[in-house]
Specification:
Elements (H helix, E strand, L loop, with lengths): L4 H11 L8 H6 L8 H11 L3 H12 L9 H45 L6 H4 L22 H12 L4 E6 L20 H13 L5 E9 L14 E4 L16 E7 L17 H23 L9 E5 H15 L3 E4 L4 H11 L4 H8 L1 H14 L2 E4 L2 H7 L8 H12 L11 E4 L33 H7 L9 E5 L8 H10 L1 H6 L1 E5 L11 H16 L6 E2 L9 H10 L3 E4 L8 H8 L4 E4 L4 H8 L2 E4 L4 H13 L1 H14 L5 H13 L8 H10 L5 H12 L4 E2 L9 H7 L3 H17 L3 H6 L2 H8 L11 E5 L6 H15 L1 H5 L2 E6 L4 H10 L9 E4 L4 E5 L8 E3 L1 H7 L5 H19 L7 E3 L9 E5 L8 H10 L4 E6 L4 E6 L4 H12 L6 E6 L15 E5 L6 H4 L19 E3 L6 H10 L6
Parallel strand pairs: 1-2, 1-5, 2-4, 5-6, 6-7, 7-8, 9-10, 9-12, 10-11, 12-13, 13-14, 16-17, 16-25, 17-18, 25-26, 26-27
Antiparallel strand pairs: 3-4, 15-20, 18-19, 19-20, 21-22, 22-24, 23-24
InterPro entries: Glyco_trans_1 (IPR001296), HAD_sf (IPR023214), SPP-like_dom (IPR006380), SPS (IPR044161), SPS_C (IPR035659), SPS_pln (IPR012819), Sucrose_synth_GT-B1 (IPR000368)
Protein name: Sucrose-phosphate synthase
Family: Belongs to the glycosyltransferase 1 family.
């Protein structure tokens, strides 16, 4: 280690006061245990970049106390290991820089291709459009919202909402959520997000036009947490009794609904919740369906009242909201709170963990994929600041600010976007309760107005705790409230204060840096910041001018703000970057002018409040000058205080909810489509014959009946048959719709013959609704031979239940309906052995026909209207064809094609491609990424061990089709048993989670694990529940008896 004597000596010096470093790596991973280790701190600081002048100064001090000859082998070895870690960090940084460069190139290429498709030029006005939706508070000082009376504006808006009765669903899964006495800070999962979602639900429930708000979360019945978290329902009482809500109902208001999922008696960290998300979705879906019926009886005239929006908070809830949005066909909103890609970037820059180690610890890739899916599915992404959009969301494949601007411009011009979609970004800062805050008037000399009846209350205890630090406590107080984290930049603030003599003479500095018992018990990073502050106080001799109390309660914070305002002080947030800056709003509400960083959310807050100054957090002089200007200029101080108090209502909860509901109102209403049509048909008993035929033609657009089950125009072989005799087609449509979809013809209803009515009623619903249990065969084979063999085994295993009709069967596959008909008939089976067919990987749904004259299948076209959200259509197809050609150009030898379009296998909602050489095609994650970069939203699935590629709507899948059956026909998911192989198509993971039961046929389709799932974004083990009692495995090469044993254990067979 020649040439590094200075660092060796420094290492040796800190070894005298810290424990030995037996395992550098493990100590880094365990750095949050709360015990301060100078050694560990030094290692981290060297790796992240330490100021060499400080190191050299420490070396000089250490060299004076110990001879170089006394160094031992352990010290030399540790030094080498530290620098080895530093080299690894540099290597990781280099790799990350290459990845970022590759990402930029991919995005530019995708943008060019998307723009080439959308070839019309933008006008000059459109080129200047903003990247995202203008903030609720305007985009510049000149465009700031007018300062109007808050109460008058709210009353005007409230009058406009009368008559609306909205049902809103919020989702926040992790942490401990309850309405009162929230345990904020109990762990990393129970923080600011918990408080925000509870207060949002509470505030929305009091808004005019909102009838009910449900906040869905996890039910935790564990001895390690309070019993209240196990209560299924909790009503949120309004904070402000003078709310605008003037109409209450039996089920109105805001509620916390706790859905049981995951381990029943265990509190689970958010990183470990992923395998249980489908279970939550099924439970939440059941609750929403039941609540919609209840609300329908109360306020909907008997028709279900579906949610106007489902709002997911954080990645896990975003993933859940996307699945629920697809199952119910209602709009989705999403708030990230903190984003996975941003966290990944920060962790990689630190260099302490490799990408694989980060994913193992935080399940970060699963989180990122959930956030990408949220971008695919959301109508609106709600953010707190513009910085979140421009610096965090733009890291994602599914959001490009430049492409978003082009798409927005084309939408305004009513010009086609060729299947491209981008969610709208809405900046809505979090709300606050201000009605209980009384800004402090008077000063420290007792100028507060009092009278004989109301004597001045005694000073809060926290005031004396702070003022005991000061020689002159009546000087204006500069207040900083932040935890001792390097990112909060407190040391720079202390340096700025210490360097500016005029500022020291005019003001005191108060640092509220969390709570502590002893420095040694703090985490290494926090203790290092606190020690640096203490050293700076000593360096600049700031004793009597700086307060840093050890303890304060959350309830003391308003009193701290009041004390600062009483001294005519200033609040400062000097963080290097501040995502939002809630403390700035709190300070303004108490009448404090602000000084804040110019990086991040404070810019938006200052734009609205205009109550202070922005500073460069790296510039000590900028900080000192801004503080001195506000403290010294009393007129400026008073003007800033007045502006803050005047505009603070724009950050209130009512204002937040008003903007929030206005955004929801811009979403195109979506809900299950069959509800309106069915009800209209049921109620129109006096229509004429001609009207009846017109109704049938309208219905036939959504529910068409054909001889072979294929859609019109899906293949060349079927078009000639469908273009046959027009009267024949009309007759078949009429009979099919009347017999199957409605069951009872209008003539029968008019005649009032109950006997005929009973005879036809059995045809009103598909037969699967009458089954006690449903077996879903979803085994993914390369060939139909293996699938036929498995079907026979399952039929035999079902035994008596099949013959008696208590057990029904659904075939769920990547095959088309024509392929299914061909192999079922050729295999000696009957199509009527199945109640339903989920085809084309979940993009088509057919039922066995109850009318033998018309044909074997009925296609559910309501299902198509249910899944068509953001379907790219022809624009998507052209992009896929280009992609297939590019794969052939790059990897083919001798002109041999690798991926070719399969027109005969494609349908309106499934574009199929044959893969000639599965080993040469990019993994599914690469194709998904390419399409997202071009703003094309879809679900990409490799099927049949990689021999076929199906591209279907983004919220369609085989598992989602089962949820559709629950919503459409009331078929309980818990009564389903899904039969799968040991692996399968790339949508395999969706078939195993949820409240349904599963049987895994060991040894079947196991080759797909290496072929299709080897190069996944995240490992299957991250999302498959390992301890689920509803999942059973058979032995290798199972027989029908083995399957029967599993079905019996799952309670499917009575005998």
């Amino acid at each position: 280690m020649a040439g590094n004597d200075w660092i060796n000596s420094y290492l040796e010096a800190i070894l005298d006061v810290g424990p030995g470093l037996d395992d550098v790596k493990s100590s880094l991973l365990l750095r949050e245990r709360g015990h301060f280790s100078p050694t560990r701190y030094f290692v981290e600081e060297v790796i992240t970049g330490f100021d060499e002048t400080d190191l050299h100064r420490s070396w000089v001090k250490a060299s004076a106390t110990r001879s170089p000859q006394e160094r031992n082998t352990r010290l030399e070895n540790m030094c080498w290991r530290i620098w080895n870690l530093a080299r690894q960090k540099k290597q990781l940084e280099g790799e990350e820089a290459q990845r970022m460069a590759k990402r930029r190139l991919e995005r530019e290429r995708g943008r060019r291709e998307a723009t080439a498709d959308m070839s019309e030029d933008l006008s000059e006005g459109e080129k200047g459009d903003t990247v995202s939706d203008i903030s609720a508070h305007g985009e510049s000082n000149r465009g700031r919202l007018p300062r109007i009376n808050s109460v008058d504006a709210m009353e005007t808006w409230a009058n406009q909402q009368k008559g609306k009765k909205l049902y809103i669903v919020l989702i926040s899964l992790h942490g401990l959520i309850r309405g009162e006495n929230m345990e904020l800070g109990r762990d990393s999962d129970t923080g600011g997000q918990v408080k925000y979602v509870v207060e949002l639900a509470r505030a929305l429930g009091t808004m005019p036009g909102v009838y009910r708000v449900d906040l869905l979360t996890r039910q935790v019945s564990s001895p390690e947490v309070d019993w209240s978290y196990g209560e299924p329902t909790e009503m949120l009482t309004p904070r402000n009794t003078e709310s605008f809500k003037d109409e209450m109902g039996e089920s109105s208001g805001s509620y916390i609904i706790r859905i049981p999922f995951g381990p029943k008696d265990k509190y689970v960290a958010k990183e470990l919740l992923w395998p249980y998300i489908p279970e939550f979705v099924d439970g939440a879906l059941n609750h929403i369906i039941q609540m919609s019926k209840v609300l329908g009886e109360q306020i909907g005239g008997g028709k279900p009242v579906w949610p106007v929006a489902i709002h997911g908070h954080y990645a896990d809830a975003g993933d859940s909201a996307a699945l629920l949005s697809g199952a119910l066909n209602v709009p989705m909103l999403f708030t990230g709170h903190s984003l996975g890609r941003d966290k990944l970037e920060q962790l990689l820059k630190q260099g302490r963990l490799s990408r694989d180690e980060i994913n193992t610890t935080y399940k970060i890739m699963r989180r990122i994929e959930a956030e990408e899916l949220s971008l695919d599915a959301s109508e609106i992404i709600i953010t707190s600041t513009r910085q979140e959009i421009e610096e965090q969301w733009r890291l994602y494949d599914g959001f490009d600010p430049i492409l978003e601007r082009k798409i927005r411009a084309r939408i305004r011009r009513n010009v086609s976007c060729y299947g491209r979609f981008m969610p709208r970004m809405a900046i809505i800062p979090p709300g606050m309760e201000f009605h209980h805050i009384v800004p402090q008037d008077g000063d420290m000399d007792g100028e507060t107005e009092t009278n004989e009846d109301h004597q001045a209350s005694p000073d809060p205890p926290i005031w004396s705790e702070i003022m005991r630090f000061f020689t002159n406590p009546r000087k204006p107080m500069i207040l900083a409230l932040a935890r001792p984290d390097p990112k909060k930049n407190i040391t720079t603030l202390v340096k700025a204060f210490g360097e500016c003599r005029p500022l020291r003479e005019l003001a005191n500095l108060t640092l509220i840096m969390g709570n502590r018992d002893g420095i040694d018990e703090m985490s290494s990073t926090n203790s290092s910041v606190l020690l640096s502050v203490i050293k700076l106080i000593d360096k600049y001799d700031l004793y009597g001018q700086v307060a840093y109390p050890k303890h304060h309660k959350q309830s003391d914070v308003p009193d701290i703000y009041r004390l600062a305002a009483k001294t005519k002080g200033v609040f400062i947030n000097p963080a290097f970057i501040e995502p939002f800056g809630l403390t700035l709003i709190e300070a303004a509400a108490h009448g404090l002018p602000i000084v804040a960083t110019k990086n991040g959310g404070p810019v938006d807050i200052h734009r609205v409040l205009d109550n202070g100054l922005l500073i460069d957090p790296h510039d000590e002089k900028s900080i000192a000058d801004a503080l001195l200007k506000l403290v010294a200029d009393k007129q400026l101080w008073a003007r800033c205080r007045q502006n803050g108090l005047k505009n603070i209502h724009l950050f209130s909860w009512p204002e937040h909810c008003k903007t929030y509901l206005s955004r929801i109102a811009t979403c195109k209403p979506r809900h299950p489509q069959w509800q309106r049509n069915d009800d209209e048909a049921e109620n129109s008993e006096t229509d004429s014959r001609g009207d009846s035929l017109r109704d049938i033609q309208d219905i036939s657009l959504n529910l068409r009946f054909s001889l072979d089950g294929e859609k019109s125009g899906t293949s060349g072989n079927d078009s000639s048959e469908l273009e046959g005799n027009a009267s024949d087609r009309r007759s078949k449509i009429e009979n099919a719709v009347l017999a199957w979809s409605k069951g009872i013809s209008k003539e029968t209803r008019k005649s009032g013959n109950p006997e005929k009515s009973d005879q036809n009623s059995s045809a009103k619903f598909p037969v699967l609704r009458r089954r006690k249990h449903l077996i879903v065969i979803a085994v993914d084979f390369d060939t139909t031979t293996g699938l036929l063999e498995t079907i026979r085994k399952v039929f035999e295993a079902a035994g008596k239940g099949r013959t008696e009709g208590s057990v029904g069967f659904i075939l769920s596959t990547s095959l088309t309906i024509s392929e299914i008909r061909s192999f079922v008939v050729s295999g000696g089976l009957s199509l009527n052995d199945f109640d339903a067919f989920i085809c084309n990987s979940g993009s088509d749904l057919y039922y066995s026909s109850l009318n033998s004259e018309g044909g074997p299948f009925v296609v559910d076209f309501y299902y198509h209207s249910h899944i068509e959200y953001r379907w790219g259509g022809e624009g998507l197809r052209k992009t896929l064809v280009r992609w297939a050609a590019s794969v052939t150009d790059k990897k083919a030898e001798n002109g041999e094609q690798i991926v070719v379009p399969a027109e005969q296998l494609s349908t309106d909602y499934c574009y199929a491609f044959k893969v000639q050489k599965p080993g040469m095609v990019p993994p599914v994650k690469e194709l998904r990424k390419l399409l997202r970069i071009q703003a094309l939203r879809c679900h990409v699935i490799y099927c049949q061990n990689g021999a076929r590629l199906n591209v279907i709507p983004v919220l369609a899948s085989r598992s989602q089709a089962l949820r559709y059956l629950n919503v459409r026909w009331g078929v309980e998911i818990s009564k389903m048993v899904v039969i799968v192989g040991e692996c399968g198509d790339t949508d395999y993971e969706g078939l195993l989670g949820g409240v349904h039961r599963s049987v895994i046929l060991k040894g079947i389709c196991s080759s797909a694990m290496n072929q299709l799932h080897a190069n996944r974004t995240y490992p299957l083990s991250d999302v498959l529940p390992s301890d689920n009692p509803n999942i059973l495995q058979t032995a290798e090469d199972c027989s029908s008896e083995d399957i029967q044993v599993c079905l019996d254990k799952l309670g499917l067979l009575e005998n």
